[in-house]
From TrEMBL:
Keywords: Membrane, Transmembrane, Transmembrane helix. InterPro entries: FtsL/DivIC. This is Septum formation initiator. It comes from the Bacteria. Residues 1-65 are annotated as: Disordered. The chain crosses the membrane at residues 73-91.
Length: 193
């Protein structure tokens, strides 16, 4: 037997997958229990192979792969989400209140400016010279002794501001003609022809 061992390379254990010199496979020999202390087949019997599955990434790096999402990460994300949802309402109300304050401040400034304009207008209207000027411009008010020129249909008509023009012969003043037409309409007088 020592000669057979020398031909195989001098090792007492057979490489896995090879057969013994008797021609029987090694798997049959592993099914029998070997009593303790006997040396008959201890050096020849190969150890069974263990199947080890590794992912290509873990095998390449040499370190075991950690999961992408851990329980702590999920808990932390949940707490952050609850915190954001809790703070969303008050933050929105705060921002809406700030916008309302800005709008009211702008409105108050505009009202203050309008109040200043109205006070200036009241001061102008309290001035008698301003009142006379506005009466002349808007109402065509003429002081006694002033000369009024009114343009009607492109013709200039002149007259004294303090006098009423005299009616021509046979013509009644406009107010008498109006009263006469009312009296005729009521049937009190007969029309003059």
């Amino acid at each position: 037997m020592s000669a057979a061992r020398g031909r195989r390379g001098g090792s007492g254990a057979a490489p896995s997958g090879r057969r013994r010199s008797t021609g029987r496979p090694l798997s049959g020999a592993a099914s029998r229990p070997v009593p303790a202390g006997s040396r008959s087949g201890a050096g020849i019997r190969p150890e069974p192979r263990r199947a080890v599955r590794r992912t290509p990434r873990a095998a390449a790096s040499g370190t075991p792969r950690r999961p992408l999402v851990t329980g702590r990460a999920v808990l932390l994300a949940g707490l952050v989400l609850v915190l954001l949802l809790t703070l969303a309402g008050p933050v929105r109300q705060f921002l809406a209140g700030r916008a309302e304050l800005t709008r009211l401040a702008a409105e108050g400034t505009a009202l203050d400016h309008r109040a200043e304009q109205l006070e200036e207008e009241l001061e102008r209207q309290a001035d008698p010279a301003y009142t006379v000027r506005q009466a002349r411009e808007r109402l065509a008010y003429v002081l006694p002794g002033d000369r009024l020129v009114v343009v009607v249909d492109g013709e200039a008509v002149e007259g004294d501001a303090g006098t009423v023009p005299e009616p021509e012969d046979g013509e009644l003043p406009w107010y008498e003609a109006l009263l006469q037409s009312v009296a005729v309409a009521d049937g009190d007088e007969e029309p003059d022809e």
